[in-house]
Design goal:
By secondary structure, this protein is mostly helical. It has one domain. The protein contains 21 helices and no strands. Helix 2 packs parallel to helix 8, helix 4 packs antiparallel against helix 10 and helix 15 runs parallel beside helix 18. The chain is globular. The two termini are 23 Å apart.
Length: 511
């Protein structure tokens, strides 16, 4: 269904063939990656690793993600906005833009390394008792930060060249296959957790080497900077965008990772492990938006450059409507199968039950916002994004300080939900007032009422069978009822057409 979302927003934008191809590849890879991710995070990891071991890995990733956001110094945002200005049609090159990006990233990385070494004694000493494994492996944050910094720079550059699907292939397929293979070795007792940690870190770092080789193979590595292009107005604009990009990237990643760090601060790594696994189930709601978020920034930046207001409107309206419908269905399926989730993972994760619910709702709120981030970020009002993210960061940290002591990990999830609600409401109001774009109407509320009714009805059914059969039955029944209830609504017109087209193609193949 998210694949159709791509197709329905392409008609007003050039490069349709390239974009459709990237959309198809990204969607297929994301669904395969989701399946692999479910096998690793949803099935094998909670049954093979202890809660504290899972929490240790999550903490390593959270800290490295925050330092990576500092290292790139906003260059990813600069890449999307300015790379068209560096393009040279004669030699099909970008006048050494990649060289600028790598130089900036290297300088930022040096700053991050100094910060990591500075905070290491404090972090390690504070975790020796409650999270000893995390304290022991803290030094692995260094290679994780280094490789993820260069990956982020190369991936942004690759996306700007309309090759977004390759980044999806590396992070959602190759990396997850690597981790799945390592967990399989744990399953058959060929390696223990100590070796698994190093294999896991290698899996995170490996895509950096692969994307570098990919760019070489496509003759896209050009680090010789054309200094003649770097006039003062351009440099000034790039520095300005870079500063705001740095604030945006840091605030955004800090918001995503701060709950994990604060759960560990108030509780321990075992609680982080429970929070990580149950949080994963809540993020399943957001999967259809991932492929769109890989290509949408490039599409919207291009539409702004061509002053194509109609294209921007179409992308925004269709992304909000279609993602909201698909997200509602996935959340509905997750809620009716909530009890069955705890047949898949051990009972020790039961304290995270409401984390699944709250994070699922939070992700639905994000889905309903469609491409609102890109609409603001690539407009002339891009600086307002920084204000929104700073306010979001303050809100998340403040609410975590309030609710984690009250409700533990459930409090962290509730803080995320409230923060995202206010954050997205703020962006919605700004886009409405500034650009006159408001895709929301009574149909969104009607869909929510319908979903609530279906949830109550399916949950009350006296079904008593094996949990796998129950999951299949509940999911199919929920999907059918939801489709029949919304198919004639104007909001669902694109989605209904997509389903009919897919059905027709499948039947044609079968015949």
């Amino acid at each position: 269904m998210d694949l159709y979302l791509y197709f329905c927003i392409q008609f007003s934008i050039r490069d349709v063939g390239i974009i459709k191809k990237q959309a198809l590849q990204s969607s297929v890879l994301l669904y395969i990656g989701t399946l692999i991710g479910f096998l690793t995070t949803g099935l094998l990891a909670p049954n093979l690793l202890s809660e504290s071991e899972i929490g240790t890995l999550r903490l390593l990733m959270s800290y490295s993600a925050i330092f990576m956001s500092i290292s790139i110094l906003g260059i990813s945002t600069v890449t999307i906005r300015f790379i068209p200005q560096f393009y040279n049609k004669k030699n099909n090159r970008h006048n050494g833009f990649l060289g600028i990006a790598l130089l900036v990233g290297t300088l930022g990385l040096l700053v991050s390394i100094v910060l990591i070494l500075a905070i290491k004694p404090t972090i390690v000493s504070n975790n020796l008792d409650k999270s000893p494994q995390f304290a022991r492996y803290f030094y692995l944050i260094l290679p994780l930060t280094l490789f993820q910094t260069y990956y982020s720079i190369l991936d942004s550059y690759n996306n700007a060249l309309y090759r977004a699907s390759y980044g999806v292939f590396l992070r959602d397929f190759v990396q997850r296959i690597f981790i799945l293979a390592a967990l399989t070795l744990v399953l058959v007792h060929l390696i223990d957790f100590e070796i698994y940690v190093y294999v896991y870190v290698a899996a995170i770092c490996f895509p950096t080497l692969l994307i570098f080789l990919h760019l070489i193979r496509h003759n896209a590595i050009d680090i010789r900077i054309n200094t003649a292009m770097l006039n003062k107005p351009l440099i000034s604009s790039m520095v300005s965008v870079s500063i705001f990009g740095l604030l945006n990237s840091f605030s955004n990643l800090a918001v995503l990772q701060i709950d994990t760090i604060m759960v560990n601060m108030y509780l321990d790594a075992a609680a982080v492990g429970i929070y990580t696994i149950t949080f994963f189930f809540g993020t399943l709601v957001f999967i259809p938006a991932k492929a769109l978020n890989k290509i949408a920034p490039t599409l919207i930046a291009k539409a702004y450059k061509e002053k194509d207001a109609e294209a921007i409107r179409d992308i925004y309206y269709k992304s909000c409507g279609n993602l909201y419908l698909v997200g509602t269905l996935i959340l509905l399926g997750l809620l009716v199968n909530l009890d069955n989730v705890f047949h898949i993972i051990p009972d020790t994760y039961e304290p995270g039950r409401y984390v699944i619910v709250l994070i699922g709702i939070a992700n639905l709120i994000k889905m309903a916002g469609g491409t609102n981030d890109s609409i603001i970020t690539y407009s002339k009002d891009y600086k307002i994004t920084t204000l929104f993210l700073i306010l979001l960061g303050i809100l998340v940290i403040s609410l975590n300080f309030v609710f984690i002591p009250l409700w533990g990990m459930t409090g962290a999830a509730f803080a995320s939900l409230l923060s995202l609600l206010f954050y997205n409401l703020g962006k919605m109001i700004f886009i409405w007032q500034r650009f006159g774009l408001n895709p929301y109407n009574l149909q969104y509320l009607v869909v929510l009422v319908i979903a609530t009714g279906i949830y109550i009805g399916v949950s009350l059914l006296p079904i008593d069978m094996h949990f796998i059969a129950e999951i299949m039955l509940d999911s199919m029944l929920t999907t059918l009822l939801f489709y029949l209830a919304i198919r004639r609504m104007p909001l669902a017109a694109d989605l209904d057409l997509a389903i009919k087209q897919v059905y027709a193609k499948v039947m044609g193949i079968l015949r």
